[in-house]
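User: quick one, fold this
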Amino acid sequence: MILVIPSIDLRGGHCLRCITGEPGTEQLYSSYSFQPENLAKLMRRENAKTLHITDHDSIEGDDTANEKIINDIVHGIDIPVELLRSFRTVSDVESQLQNGIYRVVLNSLILTNPEDVRQLVSKYSASRIIAGVRAKGHITVLPSATPPLTAVEFALKAKQLGITRLIYTDVSWEGTLCGPDTDLLKNIAIETGMRITAAGGVSSPQHLWALQELHPFGLDSVIVGRALYENKFPCQKIWRQAEARLEVATDR
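Assistant:
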């Protein structure tokens, strides 16, 4: 089975999304937007094997807004944490790895500092240094890519540096719950020969089953955000019902 990786999106020390719970859990879930570390613990209790964090403030230029929260999450759960943010220097990358982040997702550094990235892969392994790309119509959305690269061209540049995994998302499906383009993902997997993590678009077990069909081609995991927060999967109803009873019991 492909691995489902829950995602936490951070801005200003808060989560961008809040879980929609069963009646009786209003107090529990409303607090999680302001307590990302507790949301991470909840995801772990709900059987998450690894966690993806996107630091939106860093991507928008502020590298400090979520530092404490990220550190609290990393040291508060017993599963690997993967971090996507704007890594401006190799020192930024090493700082996160040394502070407990298991895996970092690189993009622009692959193009601007390729030899430094090659050394990072050699030092920390391809398990901990991976590539991530956001595309629109097959073309990467990367300011550092001049002229613009296709997703496959970017992935192959990363592969030349020793990177073996690519996270791929597309602006046409991220956040839409319409499902990822499986034909596109299959082609990227075949053309690059890399391990692929799909990100965004998933809203149902059917979407997961469709992605599972790509496992023989190298797609082995998917990052899911909105669908998990909106309880789109059958198992979540069981968890939410149990948590509702727990909250009621706690309030007595």
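User: anything notable?
Assistant: Residues 192 and 251 are 54 Å apart (CA to CA).
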